[in-house]
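just leaving the lab so this will be short. what follows is a protein written twice so to speak, once as letters and once as structure tokens for the fold. can you read through it and tell me how you think this chain folds. anything you notice is useful, everything is just below:
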Amino acid sequence: MITSSIVLLAAMLLGAPIAFAIAASALGYFLATNANLLVFPQQFIGQLGNIPLIAIPFFILAGELMNCGGITRRIFAFALACVGRIPGGLGHTNVVAGMIFAGMSGSAVADLASLGKIGMKAMRDSHYPDDLSIGVITTTATIGPIIPPSINMVIFGSIANVPIGLLFLGGVIPGILTGLMIMLMFAFLFWRRKTKVKAAPQVPFWRTFREGIWSLLTPVVLLGAMFSGLATPTEAAILATVYTLIVAGLIYRELTWAKVLEALMSTATLSGAIMLIIGFAAPLGYAISRSQVAGGLSELLMASFQDPLMIMLAVAVLLLIVGCFMEVAAAIILLTPVLGVALISAGMDPVYIGVMMVYMLGIGLVTPPVGLCLYVGSQVSGIRLEKVIVAVWPFLIPLVVTMLLIIVFPQTITWLPQFVYSN
């Protein structure tokens, strides 16, 4: 595995795409040992044949269709009607809208790209400071991979053989808690800076509810189908796409064939990149398994830390550092066969480990230098990247506080899956 690690680091330092860096690393192991080279393509094809992975392109496509079909705009209007009247209402509106949209897209980038422009324009029109606005909007996007459905949880579940439905349920309470913490931080900053803003437009609650009812039913239909047993997560992803097409195309009539084609092209590009990473991660996972790295790491963790709380705090520090330098999906794909399997082997709840890994690495979406949401936030707002980074820093506090809470109280993750599937 030393050769494999050297090849991986060298490829990443040279700027190779992460998928090919992983492939080179796995190939390095096969060439340096007596492993059968035929296993490499077998692992690649076998991993991509994993049925749950079908959910990924469909969740991405559903998110793309929502962006151009009028669904996002109606969700924002409903959130504004709910919390727009309280002090700093537009900041809270962005958080509430982000939490609702997270129940549909499963992607932080999709959430930010969709809601970011609408939220930023509304806050600028009401004279909110740019740094306060982009800070709350960018940070809220991290809720996307936590509240179900979640593309990153699908990836973890498919690699670690953990039921995806349980992972989805495990993310509900941490996702809601994160949203509430971000709202508290925004309220504090809004009060401390004595911000003078123009009152948000008064939007009648029942009118926005009536106009947006079909949009708001999306997560209800999606999650209801999964947790009632009518559909698997994979089937629910297809259902989400079909439902979005019906709502945006036939009910709202805002979806044209040109927009559908654009959504399909964007989905193909993003899905292809993710699938390549997942496919090449399989032979690397085989190499890790054959080298018994996960077992060794499990023994090391148990020998170094007797208390599970200390183990998770150490893991949290590691994942926060990794999240700063690696895209979340790639990090999950690389670390699940090693760290994830090691923690599960140490006797920890697989659902708890999966949600925690997704949450901790997700914080990296808003930390430099690789934080993808920082770049998207800069793009949707027109604010320079360094200013976006500074604006986001205060909002890292609620993310870290929430992370510590769910480490100390693992029931925030495990209670809901146990409650649902014990009845």
Observations:
- The chain has one domain: 2-421.
- The radius of gyration is 21 Å.
